[in-house]
Amino acid sequence: MSTLVPGFIQKIYRSIWREWLIFHLGDERYKFMFDKPPANEWVVLDCETTGLNIAKDQVISIGAVKIIGNKLMTSERLEILVKPDKEVSAESVKIHRLRELDVANGLDPEIAAAKLMQFIGSRPIVGYYLEFDLGMLHKVIWPMLGQGLPQEKIEVSAMYYEYKNAKLPANQRGQMIDLRFDTLMKDLGLPTRDAHDAMNDAVMTGMAFIKLRQLLGK
Predict the structure, then answer these.
(1) Closest CA to 160 of 133, 132, 134, 188
(2) Phi, psi of 8 (to 5 degrees)
(3) Is 153 helix (H, G, I), strand (E, B) or coil?
(4) Over its length of 218 residues, how does the chain's per-residue pLDDT go in tens digits?
């Protein structure tokens, strides 16, 4: 019986925390994000930004695609251009090739965030270095909700580390592993698309997630 107590306590804690978040939700229209997620469904997310400074830079494009089971549902995707209120730097244009002219007619950040939240629903969010993308998005979402996105988060680089680390001899586990996206995709034998396009990056991340789930037996 004692071995069941920690899991039972964690379940109670998660339930209480969920109810606390719902109670403090700034806009009840988004309460659906706390629903039980559909079984074996995820949303892969990627953002392109004006730069890499979370405090100063902004999202200019969002790519999201659903996964159901082991299928990447490219027909169920969301592509959004977002209009920033600051200039798009020449350095960032070299990376994602989105000029100020390209995003001038983009959606206001709040409208883009609302569309994204509707698209995700209560599904777990998958990403590659997801913390950065969420940090950028939460600057817009937090004033809307009084909190960040509540869904489960799954980091693909952590899955890849788990996979590679498990293959090492016991005395070598825990060492540094190359987590660069190009390395990851090549090692997994997956095709690549042009990088630094939000939808392309989301699709590639989704392929890696599906492959790693299979390799890890999840």
Answers:
(1) 188
(2) -65, -45
(3) strand
(4) 445 556 778 788 888 888 889 988 999 999 999 999 999 999 999 999 988 889 989 999 999 999 999 999 999 999 999 988 766 666 666 566 676 766 778 899 999 999 999 999 999 999 999 999 999 999 999 999 999 999 999 999 999 999 999 998 887 888 889 999 999 999 999 999 887 799 999 999 999 999 999 999 98
Contact 35, 118 (CB under 8 A): no
Is the CB of residue 25 less than 8 Å from the CB of residue 31?
Answer: yes
Q: How far apart are CA 126 and CA 151, in angstroms?
A: 10
Report the C-alpha gap between 57 and 63 in whole angstroms.
18
Q: Of 123, 122, 117, nearest to 144 (Cα)?
A: 117
Per the listing, tokens 């950040």 go with: 109
Please name the amino acid found at residue 97: R
pTM: 0.89
First-to-last C-alpha distance (Å) of the chain: 27
**Residue 158, C-beta contacts closer than 8 angstroms, at least 6 positions apart:** none
